[in-house]
Write a structure and sequence with these properties.
The protein is mostly helical. Helices cover 70% and strands 2% of the residues. The protein is elongated. The two termini are 28 Å apart.
Length: 350
Amino acid sequence: MENEKPVNFTYMGQSFGDMNDDSSAFSDCNSDRSGEFPTASSESRRLLMACVSENSDDLIRQLVADLESCSIDEQKQAAMEIRLLAKNKSEDRIKIAKAGAIKPLISLISSSDLQLQEYGVTAILNLSLCDENKELIALSGAIKPLVRALKTGTPAAKENAACALLRLSQIEENKIAIGRSGAIPHLVNLLENGGFRGKKDASTALYSLCSVKENKIRAVQAGIMKPLVELMADFGSNMVDKSAYVMSLLVSLTEAKTSLVEEGGIPVLVEIIEVGSQRQKEIAVAILLQLCEESVVYRTMVAREGAIPPLVALTQSGTNRAKQKAETLIVLLRQPRSGNVAARESDVSV
């Protein structure tokens, strides 16, 4: 098995070596954004009273019963109110799960009514914010319906399904189940074609899932390197850091290195070292170092792209870790090449 060389930083409570704590590179997927669902004033008052009361058990039991109503409108109303109850109060999340809401909500995720599906996805997302509920949600069969919503749902349903899958992936054994359920290609599609929130949510979910090697392979096979390179090249996207950190997990794979080069990633990474932020420069040089460590061909490409001058500048003005990586990479790029290798390199094109 190939040795993993993760770029070092801390994310979501996990330490990834010695890089600075860059958890802020990702916007953690929290509860759904307020204002998605309209509510009538009387319904809002009823919900508000339930939220502030000491005991909302009776309302929760009624809402859970309404989830299995024959009326789609009643199901929508119940799912909406459960979503709102679960949004901010951890104790209500536990009460709702214990009242038996999870399985009927999962059934709603498979509804042909896209609004009802969206409400079900969002309620499951909010319930998954509670650690005590994650295992129950996964064991109740939520993963495959969430993946279907990620594929066919409304834009909001896709975004919230990505967030819910991220939450479930915080249980290590779920990462493989989520990958094998077909989530990775749909997350890559959301990364490439979603709105700004969708891209953020997809990158965060992919980052979590791609700590597992088989999911890395799935992501590369799904074409992830193309949108990653494009987002890294767009400094106005606010996605440079997030995309680079996902790429840093993948580039340990030979297939990922090949795809990165084919998609034009080398000049993008060199540009980041030239004009990016200190954090962006550090992650870019770390990726290039992984790319070049075992390949004279890639070293040649990086050198020809003009990487050495900005790397030298980085050794003088970067963070301590960036300086160390830049110095190591400069040594690699300046190593002499044999004639046979040089001949092979002359045939390489990107």
